[in-house]
Every structure is written in C-alpha cells, then in structure tokens.
Specification:
With 433 residues, this protein is of the alpha/beta class. The protein contains 18 helices and 17 strands. It folds into 2 domains: 2-167 and 313-374, 3-Layer(aba) Sandwich (D-Maltodextrin-Binding Protein, domain 2), CATH 3.40.190.10; 170-309 and 389-429, Periplasmic binding protein-like II (D-Maltodextrin-Binding Protein, domain 2), CATH 3.40.190. The two termini are 17 Å apart.
C-alpha cells in the first residue's frame, strides 16, 4: 500500500518537472510566496507561455447521473482547445459508488471521478487517489472555502479538487402548514395537527449526529497518511449525549414522524430534512408554499434549548494515479478547469450544485438561492465531516433501527439508555485500531 502512494508521489514530482520543461511559468518548483500569486484574485488557472502537447489518448470520467451531460460538454470544449488528440467518455457513477468501484479495480477505474469526502480515506489507503502537486494544491487552497480545502486532505497531503460545498442537510417545509420552522416541537405539532408527515432519516449515521453535536457531543476519527483509522474521540455516553438520545426517541415516537430523506419516496409530507439534491422535487411538491430554513432547535429533557447541528460536507474530483506523464499533466489541468469559478457557476445553473469556489459563491444567483441560503445558515452550526469507517455507517443504521421498531423507547430508564449509549460508543471507538 505504501509503495503505491510512493509511486504516485514520484509520478507527481516527475510531472512537476515536465511542466517546467514545457515553459509553464507556474508549474516548476516555487516558494510558498510565489505560489500565492496563482489565481488568487479571480480563481483563474495558472497561465502558460504556450500550449502543451499532451499527445493522444482517451479519458474516462465518472460523475453523478444528473451531471453527465454538463460534464461531457465542458470536457469536450476543454479537449478541443487544449488536447485535440484526446477523446473522453463520461459515465454516470454516483459519488457514493465511485470510491468502491475505484478500490475494487484501480487500474480499470476512471481517470477522473467525483466522490463525497467521506470516501477519501478509503481511496488513499487503496492507492486509488493521485496526490496533488504543490502548485495545484496552492491553487485549491486559495480559491476554495476553508471547509472544502480541509476535506480534500488526508494528513498534510491534498488528494482531490473541491467541486461543491453543498453536501449538507437542512429543513425544507410547507409554509402553509409549518408556522415556526425554528422549533422541532412546533414543526411536529403542526404536522400532526394537519395530518402531515415529517421526514428525517435518523437511522443514517450522517443525520443521527445532528442531535448529539447539537448538545455539544463529539464523535470523530483520525487517520494516518495512508488513510488508516488510528483514533476515535467520542463522548455520546454522557449526560449531554443522553439528552440527545432522548430527543431522537421522542422524535421517533411522534405520529408525524417518517424515517427517510428522499423526497421521491416521501408521501403526504409538510417537512423533510434533506439536501439540495432534492430541492427541485420538493419545490414542485410545495409550489408557492416552498420554504427552507436551517435545522430547528429542540427543547431537551433537561429543559434546555439546543440548536440541531450535523455534518457539512463536500463533493470533490479525484484523479487516478497515472503511469504516463503527459496524461497525468492533462488530468491535473482538466480537474482544475472543471472545478474553477466559471465551471462551478455553470454547474450550479445547470444542475443546482452549490459552489466551493469563493468567487462562484459570490455569484448573484447563488446568493439568492433559498436552499443554498438555508444550507449556508446551517453550516454555521455544522461540523466539518471527516473520515468515518464503513462500519460506523452500518452500525448506526442497526442501532437506531431498534428505536424505530420500539425496542428502545421513552419507557426505558435513564440507566438503561445510558448503557445503550455506552455500547454504541464502545463499538464505534473499536473501529479505530
């Protein structure tokens, strides 16, 4: 495994030398101060003195299904201008599946692939993600928001290009039913009164922590440079964790509650906790009553009020380690092109993805988007999502399923609930070795 990473780093170094030899002003060995001048004001790409001959070949890209047509148009335009000897195939592979497919067959995987940041550790550990050379790493850091820059790193090394800062969740609601979106209790009461449903996928390890983080709990993992999980810090088995746990149980016992986050599968609903990927269908469902807000507050069993938190995450574009220097150089340049300010604004206009690029975030249409506004408001209370083991996600589902089924309920004593939390915490911490 370490040999794969070392090999990739060697190729990256060779590529940096290649760029310098081609007359590129910015791709050679530079000081940190020199790198700061690369695209810092407008998100532009590093300039070159002349076109680079990348040779001939083919590229394969994996992106989400709704972004295939947009990506194909952009890639074809880029290749026509920069590498006419290349052709590209753009295939629909979800961000959730891309990492698993790459790990299964690195050599047969896509040259560039989009994925969610929680998959980075797996890709690094498998040697399936190309480390980003210094100049591009500096460009990434200076042109994207802080959270997305941190998300593309494992240790001190950058492994991908940020594409979005919209991988988070918030509240969509029907304003003709929900009168106070700032209170979970009021939302549930309004939904119950109107005979409507409230959807939240509490048995998913992504949504569940919104309660625990809201009461001040911590649950995070650390990885080494190879992506291995080395440490887990968690205090869910605590007094503040018990408050959060009781709120999850109380929500599950509401007559309005339905477990889920897909608007396509939701029925008769007036409120749903989900993300921007469902915005279009929810807007169609609610019509003129369509509204969005940050997650609500809840009143805990200790009579204190807590703001729901949760994860904030990012989508990114990775590069498969390459053996051909010219092709690797092309992949770097294309990845930068597909994630620059102009492309991120265009992608927002075409498929609604929220930009990570700072210039793109200032776009007038992006600023006016009600869903992205709610997400930005929620991000102030959310935790940057780091790397989590696959076992964590699976275990969260099975654990909370016992609440949904009623095996764990408000009838359980505090001592019993604390024992359940301790079991949950011990299991999760055991995934880091």
């Amino acid at each position: 495994m370490k040999k794969k990473v070392l090999s990739a780093l060697l190729v990256a170094s060779m590529t940096a030398t290649l760029f310098a030899g081609c007359g590129d002003k910015t791709e050679g060995n530079k000081s940190a101060d020199d790198n700061k001048s690369v695209g810092t004001e407008s998100g532009t790409s590093p300039e070159t003195e002349g076109p680079v001959d990348y040779g001939e070949g083919t590229l394969t890209l994996w992106v989400a299904e709704n972004a295939v047509d947009f990506t194909k148009e952009q890639v074809d335009a880029f290749l026509k201008e920069n590498a006419p000897g290349y052709t590209a195939t753009v295939e629909a592979v979800s961000e959730a599946d891309a990492a698993g497919n790459m790990i299964t067959d690195v050599e047969g995987g896509a040259d560039l692939f989009s994925f969610a940041q929680d998959q980075l550790a797996r890709l690094v550990a498998a040697g399936a993600a190309q480390p980003v050379i210094d100049t591009y790493s500096s460009w990434i850091a200076e042109n994207n928001d802080e959270g997305s820059v941190a998300a593309v790193k494992s240790g001190d090394m950058t492994y991908a290009f940020p594409m979005t800062s919209d991988n988070g969740y918030f509240l969509f609601y029907d304003k003709s039913v929900v009168t106070n979106p700032d209170s979970l209790e009021d939302i549930l009461a309004d939904c119950e009164k109107a005979g409507k449903n409230f959807y939240m996928e509490i048995n998913q390890g992504w949504y569940l922590p919104s309660f625990f983080f809201g009461t001040g709990c911590v649950g995070e993992y650390e990885t080494d440079v190879d992506g291995n999980f080395t440490k887990c810090t968690m205090d869910f088995a605590s007094d503040k964790g018990l408050v959060a746990f009781k709120e999850v149980i109380e929500l599950a016992e509401s007559k309005a509650f339905q477990n889920g986050s897909s608007s396509d599968d939701a029925t008769n609903y007036a409120a749903i906790v989900t993300g921007t990927w469902n915005a279009a269908s929810i807007k169609k469902e609610f019509g003129d009553n369509y509204a969005c807000a940050k997650l609500p507050k809840f009143k805990g069993a200790d009579d204190q009020e807590y703001q729901m938190s949760g994860f904030k995450g990012y989508k990114m574009l990775g590069i498969k380690p390459q053996t051909e220097e010219g092709k690797l150089a092309l992949c770097f340049k294309l990845a930068q092109y597909l994630t620059d300010a102009e492309r991120q604004v265009a992608r927002y206009e075409k498929v609604g993805w929220g930009p990570s690029n700072l210039e793109a975030q200032g776009n007038e249409a992006v600023q006016a988007d009600v869903a992205l506004t709610a997400l930005r408001d929620q991000f102030e209370f959310s935790i940057p999502q780091g790397q989590y083991p696959n076992d964590y996600w699976t275990y969260c589902t099975s654990f909370v399923d016992t609440i949904i089924s009623g095996d764990i309920s408000s009838k359980n004593s505090d001592d019993d609930l604390m024992k359940k939390l301790q079991e949950f915490q011990d299991t999760c911490m055991g995934y880091a070795k």
